[in-house]
Amino acid sequence: MGKPFLSIEGGRPLRGVVAASGNKNAALPMLAAALLTEQPVILDNLPRIGDVETMLQIAEQLGASIDRDPEGRRVTMITKRIASSEIPRELCSQLRAGVLFAAPLLHRTGRAAMPPPGGDVIGKRRLDSHLQGLTAMGVEVKLDGQFSFEVDRRPHGADIFLAEASVTGTEQLMLAAVLADGVTTIRNAACEPHVEALGEMLLAMGARIDGNGTPTLTVTGVESLHGARCKVVSDHTEAGSFLALAAATGGEVTVTDIVPAHYRMTAQVFAKLGIELEFGGDWVRCGPDQERRVAPDFAGGIPVVDDGIWPQFPSDLMSVAIVMATQMNGTVLFFEKMYESRMYFVDRLIAMGANAVICDPHRVVVVGPARLHPIELSSPDIRAGIGLLGGALCATGKSLIRNVHLIDRGYERIEHKLRRLGAKIQREE
Questions:
Q1: What is the C-alpha separation between 46 and 192, in angstroms, rounded?
Q2: For the segment 350-385, what is each residue's pLDDT rounded down to a tens digit?
Q3: Contact by Cβ (8 Å): 212, 23
């Protein structure tokens, strides 16, 4: 059997209603947090994606007993004892979030060991915030082919200022601080919805956290945490991707089960590209009959779409926004500030007929609309993969996308959801 790939017959507008899946970037730290207690932890609304499966496999090898419902969206985790303090190299190399097991293992066993984590190759994704923060809390950190973490008793409180508002760095220190001795203050903390969701889970488990969802977190360590039942928040990146694909194909899609407040900057970027989003209590809609014309800035110049830390436009939506711009009327400059390799996928779009110029590793100019033609290509990472899939949906003819397992890491049953929206797409081998 060969490796699976996606076959797409493009040129069909997406139309219909789709429910947002659970947030990948919330689910992963929540799975790590479940190891902080011996009591049962129940997580609902887990997305059925590759990264969640990898985290569950790591948790099982570390000693967690995991019971899943038939649909795979609810798991019950019980970790009576830690079977190993070392994360297997093969599993850790598959995703970056494996590093988040460090703090739970330190609390349960006093040590943790793991190889450098893997994940998408989109640029340097340093672990400095993890290492400096844990060191400030009394953890001894060594790097000799793998990371080793040790603490004599338990981490102690500290006043920590993060040099960058790292999402996983903030999450790691939250996991370390909730059972630490004393008070930990985390300044310049990341504020993304998935970081806040981790905080809500820890609070439900008995943690003491002030300022959850803000740039300054004050965590007072407690002696122990208890079990809890929590629901994974919906994935604003997945929802934003479906909205962008609907706009790019000239379609009409409503995404349900969302939190409208998570889309404030996304709505502004869509408006720059000539697409107005509509919101209800728990839904967002890309409607028909859009202007599809890029709006110049106030001085009449070329508008700029750039990303940044929350609440700015998410880097994870840059790829689909670029694809969307290829089908709009006008010129846009995209400025990727977070990762120096995020824009490399644009070469494939140019090969499909996109009118784009790669200025440097961080900036791309797109002039639309462009008539895209089908192509055979490989997905380089999760977000570029969904962007190239969007290009294939716009192209007239049959495209093939390989390395589909990378898209599967972040998007649940992508071909099934797209078929429900009218796409002609099949997974083949």
A1: 18
A2: 999 999 999 998 999 999 999 999 999 888 889 999
A3: no
Could you identify the residue written with the tokens 């479906």?
Answer: 242
Is position 120 annotated as part of the catalytic site? yes
Q: How far apart are CA 403 and CA 409, in angstroms?
A: 11
CATH code for 5-21+234-428? 3.65.10.10
From the candidates 44, 51, 69, 120, give the one annotated as an active-site residue. 120
Confidence of residue 95 (pLDDT cuts 50, 70, 90): confident
Q: What values do phi and psi take at 20, rounded to 5?
A: -70, 140
The whole-angstrom separation of Cα 429 and Cα 425 is 13
* Predicted TM-score (pTM) above 0.85: yes
| The two structure tokens encoding residue 390 | 């969007």
Q: 327-339: per-residue pLDDT in tens?
A: 999 999 999 988 7
Homologous superfamily of the 24-231 domain (CATH):
Enolpyruvate transferase domain (3.65.10.10)
Sort strands 41-44 and 228-231 into parallel, antiparallel or unpaired.
Answer: parallel
